[in-house]
Amino acid sequence: MTARAAFHTVFYHGVVSFLKFVLHFGSRVRFLQFGKIPNGACVMVSNHISHFDPPFLSGWLPRKIDWIAMVELFGASWSKAAFTWLDVIPVDRHGDDRQALRHALRRLEQGHMIGIFPEGGIRDGVQSILSGADMREGAFLIAAKAGCPVTPVVILGSERLYNRRNWLPWRRAKVYIAVGEPIFPTPKGGRKKLRDDVAAALIRLKDRLVEKCHLTADDLPHSPQERMREP
Question: Which residues of the chain have pLDDT under 50?
């Protein structure tokens, strides 16, 4: 490991540890691992329900995640430096960003885990992939080109932290994170079959999480606005 890579790793774990400490004040997290997370190269995909999702997933998954995030987050000099030190890969969501693809493939060649929200933004209700909504193909193109597995992850409850009352010590929102079995691309199927397989796996994983933790419709993704209005 180079000195630069070592610095990035130390910085990443320092930031993640701090954010995890802060999140403990507003949440109680239940982490369920229904499948084994690969040790080598893999692409992690998850539903996206709040801005708290990246620190939750980085803090509770047992591997460092190199996130792919929208290039707009790199607009200011301080944010560009911070996200670069966190090994975040910027992507232009409005075009064919081949540079981001090359960066992601290079990280996978080095055995890293790449993290992507294939919804392209925060989604709830029928717009959520947990309800069968479409996913963008970028994550599956990357995994198919790299020949590496996709690890499906479901997160529920993180949007409750938009409600300030849930940061009170006696309330603390319940957040659930579930990891499923890795899904491998097939030689004949390509990225479209991989996307369909992962889409089905995410719904099954959500159903399994609901059954295991006895969740209700209220625990499924709601909009930040709805959560903020809750008493």
Answer: none
